[in-house]
Design a protein that fits this description.
Chain lengths: ~120, ~110
């Protein structure tokens, strides 16, 4: 079983829709949670970063972490065609130990927002 | 915007050739990483470095090797390329444990 599971989609939504992207994980040591956006033929770029549980909002993007359920989400409000990309969740354990600083990625969800 | 660069962006090469993929960052980050990414698959860590003269193998076994002689430079070398090495290679750097900045990637095709 993979440490991080992410539905690969693809997900196709109309412009203006609210998009929900999700990941589940099994390693309770994960403390840092990130969402990356990757456009075709580009490297991933960091969208959101959250430490431990809670919500974080940045413009049209909201990241949620529920550590009790080992579940994280990224919500995109008023989605735009420019949001069309692959969205990757990533996680890192707490400080210390041999895994410190190393990210474990989900498979990525392909999102298309059509006009 | 992150200042991390990878060259070449695309490489088509024959089996048995030696190749070096370059990665440089101008942010002074101590930590650097190499990931391999196949289409529709997650990124797999193949090498990482926490500073000069420090290199470690990642979670995914790889026949490639890396070196870290300067903080800003983290090249990856394949001594003898094979078709199974065909993939996208992504370099990243970070100063902390959470914000890794990625380069644009190198798409490698071994014939």
């Amino acid at each position: 079983q993979k440490e991080v599971e992410q539905d690969p989609g693809p997900l196709s939504v109309p412009e203006g829709a609210i998009v929900s992207l999700n990941c589940t994980y099994s390693n309770s040591a994960f403390q840092y949670f990130m969402w990356y956006r990757q456009y075709s033929r580009k490297g991933p770029e960091l969208l959101m970063y959250t430490y431990s549980s809670g919500n974080k909002e940045d413009g049209r993007f909201t990241a949620q972490v529920d550590k009790s359920s080992k579940y994280i989400s990224l919500f995109i409000r008023d989605s735009q065609p420019s949001d069309s990309a692959t969205y990757l969740c990533a996680m890192s354990p707490n400080a210390g130990g041999t895994s410190y600083g190393k990210l474990t990625f989900g498979q990525g969800t392909i999102l298309t927002v059509h006009p | 915007e992150a200042d991390i660069y990878q060259t070449p962006r695309y490489l088509v090469i024959g089996t048995g050739k030696k190749i070096t993929l370059e990665c440089s960052q101008t942010m002074g980050h101590d930590k650097m990483y190499w990931y391999q990414q196949d289409p529709g698959m997650e990124l797999h860590l193949i090498h990482y470095s926490y500073g000069v003269n420090s290199t470690e193998k990642g979670d995914l076994s790889s026949e490639s090797t890396v070196s870290r002689i300067r903080t800003e430079h983290f090249p990856l070398t394949l001594e003898s390329a094979r078709p199974s090495h065909t993939s996208q290679y992504l370099c990243a750097s970070s100063v902390g444990e959470e914000t890794q900045y990625f380069g644009p990637g190198t798409r490698l095709l071994v014939l």
